[in-house]
Design brief:
This protein starts with a helix and ends with a helix. It is 84% helix and 0% strand. The radius of gyration is 18 Å and the shape is globular. α1 runs parallel beside α6 and α4 crosses α9. By secondary structure, the chain is mostly helical. The chain contains ten helices and no strands.
Length: 248
């Protein structure tokens, strides 16, 4: 089997993880009951992915002094993008008014993340088949909680279950683009990945801190707020555990 075929099979398997969200949330009544709490879990996974997965990965590549700059660029870029989305929705009638801008920000940030995952898989297979398999397993383990969180964010932001599934799957397919780019332009992708990774950190921190956490603060009940805190910490903890078990 050719290396390119191995890479494509691996990234397609990773992309299929994106359908897990809808398999878990088949019943609308159940979804409505737990969705607000899942936003807490989603915020935790975004913060965990940013600080425990992507940031260490960016720092390992060197150029440590440039990483904070590109994180700030990512935060500012997502701020500008969200402002544009709010303006666009305000000027295009009622069709999109119920969809929060952070849903599209999450899609954009996740697309960058998946692009990088695809590149990691390709570069790993280019080194050896065994390394490629290990990297694929590691990324799938990271993606399971991440994709469940992403699906929750899209639903909470106003998407229907089917629309959330389609967007989540399309975003997951950017891993294929990342894999192909790394396969044909591996040196270029490796040299630019530090900037893309740092940018994604800024995006994830922005979404979690300015969109999701304020939504969590809307809950005033002390008991429910405590549950949200536990789920927020659980999201971070899951990302940490997976990172410790499956290093890639």
């Amino acid at each position: 089997m050719s290396v390119l075929l191995q890479i494509l099979i691996a990234v397609l398997i990773v992309s299929l993880v994106s359908i897990l969200g809808i398999l878990i949330f088949l019943k609308k009544k159940t979804l409505n009951k737990i969705l607000f709490y899942l936003v807490s879990f989603a915020a935790g996974t975004l913060l965990g992915a940013a600080f425990l997965d992507l940031l260490p990965e960016a720092l390992e590549q060197g150029f440590k002094e440039i990483v904070p700059i590109f994180i700030l660029v990512g935060i500012l870029a997502f701020f500008v993008l969200e402002k544009f989305l709010h303006w666009h929705h305000h000027h295009t009638g009622h069709e999109h008014e119920e969809v929060h801008g952070f849903t599209y920000l999450n899609i954009f940030g996740d697309a960058i993340h998946n692009f990088l995952d695809g590149a990691v898989i390709a570069i790993s297979f280019l080194n050896s088949t065994s390394l490629g398999i290990v990297a694929t397993i590691a990324i799938i383990a990271h993606e399971i909680p991440q994709e469940i969180a992403d699906f929750s964010i899209l639903i909470y932001g106003g998407f229907s279950k089917m629309k959330a599934l389609i967007y989540n799957f399309m975003t997951a397919l950017t891993a294929v683009i990342g894999a192909l780019a790394a396969y044909f332009y591996s040196s270029l992708i490796q040299n630019s990945s530090i900037f893309l990774t740092s940018f994604a950190v800024g995006g994830f921190v922005y979404i979690a801190s300015t969109d999701l956490i304020p939504e969590i603060h809307k809950e005033k009940n002390l008991r429910k707020s405590f549950v949200q805190l536990i789920l927020l910490a659980l999201g971070i903890f899951v990302i940490w555990v997976v990172g410790e078990v499956f290093q890639h």
